[in-house]
Amino acid sequence: MITVATQVPINTIVPMLIAISDRNWEQFKTLESDFVDQYGVDVWEEVFNFRLKPALDKDSDRWLLVQWCSTGIKSVKNVT
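Predicted structure:
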């Protein structure tokens, strides 16, 4: 895990969890964008994958996945 990702304050992550709990997609996207602006996309990937997503219950995880899928794929990253 990127060192900076472990130093992100929990009070930065909690509002995202609340937005997910409230099923507020627009708020979540705003918080996600603000996070990426402050810390960068690499840190966001680490925080999301290892801190935020594992904290979600099954219904919240599914809701988030449905929200992402409903917006369509904006880019495809080649993995080789």
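Summary: The mean pLDDT is 86.
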